[in-house]
Amino acid sequence: MSAETTSPSLFARLALGVHRHRRAVLVGAVVFLLAAIGVLSRGGHLTTGTIDGIEAARAEALARPATAGSTDQTLAVIFHHDTWTAKQPRFTQAMTDVLERVRRLPEVESVVSPVGAPEALGARFVSATGHDVLALVRLKGGEREAVAAFPTVRAALDDPRLETTLTGKVAFLAALNQLLEHDLLRAELISFPLALLVLLWVFRTVVAAMLPLVVGGLAVLCGVAGVLLLSRVTNMAQYTLNVVSLIGLGVAIDYSLFIVSRFRGELAEGLSTQAALVRTLDTAGRAVAFSGLAVTVGLAGLLFFHGSYLSAMGLGGALVVAFAVLFALTVLPALLSWLGPRVDKGRLPFGRGTGRVGVWHALATWVMKHPWLVLLPTLALLLAMGLPFRRLELAATDITALPPGTEARQGAQTLARLFPREAATRVLVAVEFPSGDALTPERSAALFDASRRMAALPGVVGVESAVDLSPGLDKATYQQMAAAPPELLPAEVRAAREAYRAGSVAVLQVLTSAPPSSHQARELVRALRQERTVGDGTLLVGGQTATDVDATEFLKENTPAAVGFVMGMTCIVLYVLLRSVVLPLKALLMNLLSLAGSFGALVWIFQEGHLHRLLRFEPGPIEPSLPILLFCALFGLSMDYEVLLLSRIREEWLRTGDNTHAVAEGLERTGGLITSAAAIMVAVFAAFALASVVVVKAMGLGMAIAVALDATLVRVLIVPAMMRLMGDWNWWAPGARGRGERR
What we know:
This protein is of the alpha+beta class. Helix content is 63%, strand content 8%. It has helices at 10-20, 22-42, 55-63, 89-103, 119-124, 143-157, 169-203, 206-230, 240-268, 273-300, 309-329, 331-339, 359-369, 371-386, 407-418, 420-423, 441-455, 475-483, 491-499, 519-528, 544-578, 582-607, 612-615, 625-656, 659-688, 694-726; strands spanning 74-80, 108-112, 132-139, 163-167, 425-432, 460-464, 501-502, 505-512, 533-534, 537-542.
């Protein structure tokens, strides 16, 4: 029965509306495009990923007013000359000139250097070689303001007389942001041509191949613009742009591929342009809408991590998927309506056989005949691939995520070699007293005891605080100094009190030689938190290692709710689409299998270091947010192929009532399309796997592996084999008996 004579569904009415008003739809698309370009030209306020409310964040907020309270906004500047030494006047004069120029900048809060400093500090800041001197430049404002000011400060530090190297968190974040922007541009320049090649092979016509790229580019531009707008009102991590581009480009091209393929097929059956468009949106369009809903549900799982950058990232991801669905169901049909049969213009001089007896027909027949032979080995392979995930270790991205040639990383290595104490891992301890001065005689005594207790912990190489000025000073001396008028104290003591005190908050820096992401450093954080009372004050622990510990606990606490929501809502979406209880449960199991294989591969590659020379990265623990981010994104993306395959199988089952025939026909009809769509998505994701930043590289490769496994082993082999074995039980639902639901 033709599409014109059937009772129009919602998607059929949408097709008719787009066909009649295609000019208005295309004008609207141009308006969206111009608005997106306008937003992109103004930029946004992107930051690194932060989590509100964790102990480490509270400790850093308390300590920030103190000069020595936080090193997050402090640049470590190393001045070097091959022949001059720090004792020579010309070295001192050149460094003084540079630092005076920097000190006058409105973005700079303070400068600490050996020039004019106490002798003890001066000795610490001059290397044993005598050719290198360290200075600390503290920037004003928070992290965002400090990173924005970095280029200006970096330019002011340049001087032809001295070689200057910068490192520190601000330098790291500035380099990371620059690399992320470069990676995003490179990935898009690579992924678009790769996707075009696959589309040309699939469609074998230039016009049809270009349409998905138009929709994909429009969705990504609008999605990125939406993220930049959101970044003005919420905490949005810099690499959200990479994630949004990666997901948006993949799903938009896939959705367009499904719709263009179905439209061309309906035209080939002899339908008119309008009838083909109605049939296309009533079938492939419906599948795209439900697939987009499934992807959005997956990304909505990130909203359970409220107060963190993950929540904002989920919002950005859902936004770009919404744009992809919107443009695939409106702009693309408008273009198809305008083109009609001209969608096959620009035919290429190569092709494939169009007969039904081909590789997919043969594969479908073989899977139906040998379901157990297909099912058991593929299940065993996926489970084996997932085994390394049991050895997962988590740690936040640090300076090792940068390529070895970047200034910030080279500076960190130089700092560790020449100034090991300054480069040591620092665990921040903030002691908050109820009110008044943090350094009264009684509180100084309590801080003295706490400092000595901390110094005795395993792995600690030193403690810096207002009660750790000299090894020869005892508790009574510190109490006497606390009781003395400030004007009678030595300049060094007054400076220390200002550096390590902020009103009723005392600050201590606990130094360890263990790397920030190491097990030893984490154990030190936990040991420091064992004793919370210091006199009448309360102890809080911050710093990079403490942030890692707290972030991991934050993710563990919120992950069960997020995973439960994603799986539950996905079941509901698939039930509405398929009217089956069994198929959604099977879909969840299939998704978990493909995710297990991807997660295991990530641990095997990025944590344990296999292929690190080929992929050019330094092995280490996995970024804590990566597994949950991949789960939420991939759980929805995997439904693309599940929805496409099962929708086509259900069409055949409703028509014939023969489960075996329906499964074989569905696989035969969609196998090539699923493989082509997966090839495009793998090409897009693999382009991001070429990134310089390890977390983006890991996400791109992880998603490429998951999609490849999902589209080959899972959807083409395991799903049909299981459906063949389950027979009519596939379609069981409360109130329905076997084929009773068929119309």
